[in-house]
Design goal:
The chain is of the alpha+beta class. It is built from two helices and three strands. A three-stranded antiparallel beta sheet has the order 1-2-3, covered by helices on one side. The longest helix has 8 residues.
C-alpha cells in the first residue's frame, strides 16, 4: 500500500490545527442563537480562513470567514510545538 499525499481536506482535522483566530473563537463561550441552551463550537473546513460554528443540541450552523487582519495564505500550516531551533556558536559570538 502506498502513502497517499496530504490532501487539503485532511489538513485541518481538529480546531487545534486551525489558525489562532479560530482556536480563540473555539475557546469563547458563545451561546447558540437558535436554542439558547448550548455553547457553539468551531468545526474545521478545508480552508484555513473559514470555519463552521455548530451547535451540539440543535441543527444550527453558520459559516464564519476570518476577518482580513486574521487571514493566512491557503497553504498555511500550523507551526509545530515540538522541535528545536538550531543555532551556530558563531551566531552567538558574532555580536
Amino acid at each position: 500500500m502506498t502513502h497517499w499525499p496530504d490532501e487539503p481536506e485532511h489538513r485541518y482535522r481538529t480546531v487545534e490545527d486551525m489558525t489562532p483566530y479560530f482556536r480563540s473563537r473555539h475557546k469563547q463561550k458563545r451561546i447558540c442563537p437558535e436554542c439558547h441552551q448550548a455553547a457553539l463550537f468551531v468545526k474545521p473546513t478545508p480552508s484555513p480562513n473559514v470555519g463552521i460554528d455548530k451547535c451540539p443540541n440543535c441543527r444550527y450552523l453558520q459559516v464564519v470567514e476570518a476577518p482580513a487582519g486574521a487571514r493566512v495564505p491557503d497553504d498555511w500550516t500550523r507551526p509545530r510545538d515540538t522541535g528545536c531551533r538550531i543555532i551556530r556558536f558563531a551566531d552567538l559570538y558574532s555580536r
